[in-house]
Amino acid sequence: MVANQLWRWRALSIEGEPRSGTLWATDRNAAFTRLMRNELHPLAVTRCSQKYRWRPHHCYEMFRQLATLLQAGLTLSHSLQMLADQHPLKPWQALLQSIADELGEGCSFSEALKRWPAVFSPLHVSMVKTGELTGKLEECCRRLAQQQKSQQLLSAKVKKALRYPVIILMLAVIVVLAMVTLVLPEFAAIYRTFNTPLPKLTQIVMGMAAFMQSYSLALFSGLLVPVAAAWILRNAPRWQRILLHTPVMGALAKGQKLGQIFTVLSLTQQAGIPFLQGLESAEETVESCYWRGILRCVREDIEKGLPIWSSFQKTAIFTPLCIQLLRTGEMSGALDVMLKNLAHHHTEQTFQQADNLAALLEPLLLIVTGVIIGTLVVAMYLPIFHLGDAMSAG
Length: 394
Hints:
The chain is mainly α. The chain has helices at residues 28-37, 56-71, 76-86, 90-104, 109-114, 122-134, 137-191, 200-214, 216-232, 237-244, 249-270, 275-285, 289-303, 308-314, 320-332, 335-393; strands at 5-12, 18-25, 41-47.
């Protein structure tokens, strides 16, 4: 529920024992009603002012542990109660307890999850509902946990591969700025006492240092504005389209999204969910507006009667391998197998591209950083060596 708020409470049980905890409720009256429904006499209810941000890995852990408890033979309500009691985070304790209470009141698990769209995506709701209908809730929870873990690993791998060169370049820029603003002025004061002309390399470096000091604000703005604009527009469809056409980052970003989309489609197909509903779940799972628009177009074309492979081909963003396997799977009736193969292919390919990028950039960035810093060091000390030669000649 979007309007829900987290409340801290203290109450007395029927036996008179003091109890305390947290719960989610729309307002104070709803919190009091909830406590009294659980046979607790409220003493104090305080609203938590801090907003909580739901983390995806906590959701993955919940479904993984829930699958394990269900496999052990525990009931769903008892499993959720155990997870609520042992969870280290108060918001999740209150959430799991709320879901367990709703199950006790006759609500289905999928409907209880549907009331928390900020935590559980439509994919979670669809998979859980399928598990309830087929009697395979444990298997559906385990598949959800595996899918989320795979996507988190893939996302972390891509972010690490893209983050590494940025960090190295930022460190190089900081070192260069420190040498230009702190070290070079001291050497320049010494060089003014020399009666001999400075080497050409030193003159160029000192000229660049003077230019950077004079126009430091303009240079900083010139670097900050594109970075800020890219951060603000990172989810804009046009920016996403530009990102896909960049040489290295585009391949990684595209591979990650294709792996995510086909993993969700494969998961829903194996669970017996209709393809259009699975495509809608994939659309809701993808964060990028650009990819959401593509999947929406694919879904609309399929609803008009076009074949699945033709609808994907029409977008001109999916690879020929995707189109070929989708066509083969649709014609042979093995679409779930082909979707699984596509998900595995793109995930493994993206992992390999990230590893290759890291292996290539590490020595390349070290060489670039070493050349820049080495040039500055040589430019600073070269006049001293020339002065020694001049004194020896004299």
